[in-house]
């Protein structure tokens, strides 16, 4: 883990750290499963950020002013949230055109989060497809 990201994760409450580590693990698993190359892990705007070549950045974070949720952020000028609302609108909450909102106590393995992350990691090869190929 990138040392700056590790320090950030260590600042979170235990349950939040567990949940965000799970999301991080899903990002790495999707990148490996689809042979998308090395995942670049950095800290951007104080949030853990993940990207592979050909994908759109994924950022994950928790804020103390909304302690019951974590957020998975996507670049607001992509069609990610628009597409995910269409495909998974009943399974996630959303924040504007930027983020999936996930309860800290949710079982992320029971959500279609892995597919959402896959679409982000493959974004540039899917952006020309209706619903980013997410049907």
* Uncertain residue ranges: none
| SS element count, helices | 5
Q: Over all CA atoms, what is the radius of gyration?
A: 14 Å
Largest sheet: 6 strands, antiparallel
Query: What is the H/E order?
Result: HHEEEEHEEHH
CATH C-level class is Alpha Beta
Q: Proportion of β residues?
A: 15-25%
| Beta strands, count | 6
Count of the separate structural domains: 1
Task: Please explain how this structure is put together.
Strands 1-2-3-4-6-5 form a six-stranded antiparallel β-sheet. It is α+β, with helices and mostly antiparallel strands and 135 residues long. It has a single domain, classed as Aspartate Aminotransferase, domain 1 (Alpha-Beta Complex). It is 37% helix and 21% strand. It has five helices and six strands, in the order ααββββαββαα. A hairpin with a 3-residue loop joins strand 5 (93-95) and strand 6 (99-103).
Structural topology:
Layout: H1 3-10, H2 14-33, E1 40-44, E2 47-51, E3 58-62, E4 69-74, H3 80-88, E5 93-95, E6 99-103, H4 113-121, H5 123-126
Antiparallel strand pairs: 1-2, 2-3, 3-4, 4-6, 5-6
Task: From the structure above, extract its key features.
single chain, six-stranded antiparallel sheet, 135 residues, Aspartate Aminotransferase, domain 1, 5 helices, alpha+beta
